[in-house]
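thread: overnight batch results

M.L. [08:02]
morning all. the overnight job finished for the chain we discussed friday. pasting input first so we're all looking at the same thing
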Amino acid sequence: MKKSTKITYYAHIVFMSIIMILNLLGLMLNEDTSVKSIYLFDLIQSVLFLTTIILTPTTMKKGSIQLSDVVYIILVLFCLAHFFLGEICGFYAKVVWWDSVLHTFSGMIITFLSFSVISLLNDSKKSSVNLNMRFSCLFAFCMAITVGVIWEIIEFTSDSLFLTNMQRAYESIAEGGARGEPLIGQAALYDTMKDLILDALGSITTCVLCSIFCTKKKIGLDKLSVIKIARSSNLKEDTKSKLAITKSTNKNIETNILNDNDKLENYNRSELIENNELIKNSENNSAYDDDGNISNNLLNDFVSDNASSQEEKNSNIEFDNNISNKKLSK
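M.L. [08:03]
and the structure it wrote out:
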């Protein structure tokens, strides 16, 4: 993890810890049951977000995936807008358009992250998937709508269990979002349908803009990806292993050359000893001519035979050394 990424990561953890503590204090200090329920739900959300943030680096490391600094910055800003400004400062109740803006941007963010996931699938060696631009946009749009629907299910569950008013199906009677009289008919469904429509609009806008940008620049979706496969460490490990294998191979070749040279030297010595012994034996066998001298023909034949034999053996060993030197140079 880079230094800038670490700073953003730990800042996110500190920020979410503060949000969790504030929700816990709100839960303990408020006596209104409906307001306490809201703080309880926000506390559960903050704990889940904090746990996800802490476990993210470990999960990414196991999958050899790197998250860009942009992802952490977006998460920090989104948590600031949702938890601190929206829930604690009451922007959801005070500012009419606050919820609409966050839903639009959430659709855009999820779509953008979906493009990164598609890029990972296209680049992965374990997958044979290779999606084109049109199908990638369709996949990203479906992901954004799916996440939006899941969030609406969470809001409905919160309203049912914790008596909150996240779906705005009740009249709001407090800044914290405590609910009053229930709304009737389409008014009760207005907030849910508006959120889903804004999720869709945010996703469609992102798909159109990314398609135009990639087509104009003649680039693929991988250039827009904020999630990368961590190949640098694997590449270093492969390079180190190849270098180690090369060094061991070179050492083996050098060892073989030294052994061959030692053998050649020992062979020459043995041949020299044998020649001396043969000359002595010839002297002892009285290989003399009529004048009492050693027979030149006999001695010359003996030396020439041994010389040719030695040259033949030396040439064979030099041939082996040349082959070993060529392997070493490679």
